[in-house]
Amino acid sequence: MSLQNFMNHAMSSWMNKEGPDSDIVLSSRIRLARNIEKFNFPTLSTYEESQEVLHFFETTLKNKTFPKIGRLELLKMNELQPIQKRVLVEKHLISPNLSENAIFGGCLLSENEEVSIMINEEDHIRIQCLFPGLQLGEALEMANKFDNWIEEEVDYAFDEQCGYLTSCPTNVGTGLRASVMMHLPAMVLTQKINRIIPAINHLGLVVRGIYGEGSEAVGNIFQISNQITLGKSEKDIVEDLISVVQQLITQERTTREALYNSSQNQLEDRVFRSLGTLTYSRIIESSETAKCLSDVRLGIDLGIIKDLSRTILNELMILTQPGFLQQYFGGPLRPNERDIRRAALIRERLNLEMERKKRMEDDES
């Protein structure tokens, strides 16, 4: 399969589309945690209960088509290969925890991959909506539609005082986890991020790495999400997060401008060295890839690089992950083989972009 065909089938919409404030915000995610009243929570449920939960979704929502997002496909974890599950994690469509639930776990996934309903993860139901750019309000609206559709068929575990009941006490209440994935290279370079993260934590928010809890902020990419789900409405949680994110956007843009004005030559040198590394390397590790992609994306956003679009960086951020590499190249790869194939894939993707750019210029002339 050619890389172009592979990307056409493999890329989620948030990776190759731009949304509001896409220069800073890569994606917005809403996740609602729910449990079915008549069953034990997944941490204590029996085999029969877990199978019944999975069967419920298989008979009520599998292959149904919804406006804007298309048909829902049911993926059962015990029917997927390890590489396939790893790819779903790398695309942020399922959690690492669900990928390890080989017996009971499942996922209903929309055609455009904006909606993912995880089944028998930490809770019976985790409805996730993932949009490009800063679109938390839109993602919440979509998640609530699916929440309402499901609640028409089952009774949720709910308490009048506490709200929705969940396996983890930190999710009790609304069951809502709202998060945005942000690219903050200027604040990292100037070390402002070291002061900002504690301040964010004091506001009831948490800063994590690219794959959420327990992951590192590789490539200067951070996830900002709410910690409090009890005692606040869904609307208030989302509005509070948006307010903080908008402040971060302003600070990052201001810091980028100041950095460029004070250190233009050094910044341009850093950007073009990273572009050169991506363009010509024959071996490249994932950590170096993340650093170079961050530099090049910053260069695109500042107008230093004019011939590439930032969506390419979104794509490469995912395409160069171990699962994707092994899926594209057709099987398991040792770490050193992945480094070689990663470099080859990056070169091929950049060549595709240059060919596309040339065709556009030829058409205009």
From TrEMBL:
Q: What class of enzyme is it?
A: transferase
The enzyme's E.C. designation: 2.7.14.1
Q: Where are the transmembrane segments?
A: none
Give the molecular function GO annotations. ATP binding; creatine kinase activity; protein arginine kinase activity
Q: Name the PROSITE patterns for this protein.
A: PHOSPHAGEN_KINASE, PHOSPHAGEN_KINASE_C
Alphabetized, the UniProt keywords read:
Allosteric enzyme, ATP-binding, Kinase, Nucleotide-binding, Transferase
| Chain residues that bind ATP | 27-31, 92, 126, 177-181, 208-213
Question: Its GO biological process terms?
Answer: phosphocreatine biosynthetic process
Q: What's in the GO CC field?
A: extracellular space
Ranges spanned by the short sequence motif RDXXRA motif of the pArg binding pocket involved in allosteric regulation, renumbered to the chain: 338-343
What is catalyzed by this enzyme? L-arginyl-[protein] + ATP = N(omega)-phospho-L-arginyl-[protein] + ADP + H(+)
Q: How is its activity regulated?
A: Appears to be allosterically activated by the binding of pArg-containing polypeptides to the pArg-binding pocket localized in the C-terminal domain of McsB.
Q: Which HAMAP family match?
A: Prot_Arg_kinase
What is the annotated role of this protein in its UniProt record?
A: Catalyzes the specific phosphorylation of arginine residues in a large number of proteins. Is part of the bacterial stress response system. Protein arginine phosphorylation has a physiologically important role and is involved in the regulation of many critical cellular processes, such as protein homeostasis, motility, competence, and stringent and stress responses, by regulating gene expression and protein activity.
Protein family membership: Belongs to the ATP:guanido phosphotransferase family.
Protein's name in the database: Protein-arginine kinase
